[in-house]
Amino acid sequence: QLRCFVSFRFTPDGKLYADHVKHFLEVAGIEVVTGERFEPRGVSEKISELLSDDLDFGVLIIAAEGESIWTRDEVNKLWNEGKYVIVLVEEGASFSPGLKADLEWISFPGGRISDSYTKLLEGTNFIRRMRSITPSG
Predict the structure, then answer these.
(1) Contact 87, 62 (CB under 8 A)
(2) 23 close to 51: Cβ distance less than 8 angstroms
(3) Which tens digit of pLDDT belongs to each residue from 46-63?
């Protein structure tokens, strides 16, 4: 079973999109973790630990209000750990991938994150194929 981290800003749209994406991924048989759970420590420490955990990939959701202050760090940490990154960007939002400037991302119209699900499924199927060829761990 694949396991992924879903990243989003804790705004009303970010949370709504994340809930929809989490549900979609879980129905597709993918275990989802997020940084939503409260822990009495620094957010950066919690997220860094989650990203270093036994994950196959991360999904970063960037709603119209823009990326979080950690987006670039999350992309780079996932890549440095040999994990795949799928980025969903609402039309009108900006995304700056940092060192991974050639990273593809999936654009979706405002309020319709479900329009990204076909490409999201293509991405997860690619990851499944790659993991079956070269299992992690």
Answers:
(1) yes
(2) no
(3) 777 777 788 999 999 999
The answer to whether 58 touches 83, Cβ cutoff 8 Å, is yes
Torsion of CA 7, 16, 104, 97, to 10 degrees: -50
Residue closest to 5 by CA, chosen among 44, 65, 52: 52
Note the residue count of the chain. Answer: 137
Rg, Å, the chain Cα set: 14
- Coil/strand/helix, residue 10: coil
Residue 60's SS3 state is strand
Q: What is the dihedral of CA 41, 15, 23, 2, to 10 degrees?
A: -40
Whether the Cβ atoms of residue 79 and residue 85 lie closer than 8 Å to each other: yes
- Output the pLDDT for position 99: 55
Q: Token digits for 39? A: 């822990």
Contact between 60 and 85 (Cβ < 8 Å): yes
Query: Angle of helix 12-27 relative to helix 117-133, nearest 10 degrees?
Result: 50
Q: Kindly tell me the sign of the dihedral angle through the C-alpha atoms of 77, 79, 84, 87.
A: positive
State how far Cα 115 lies from the chain centre.
16
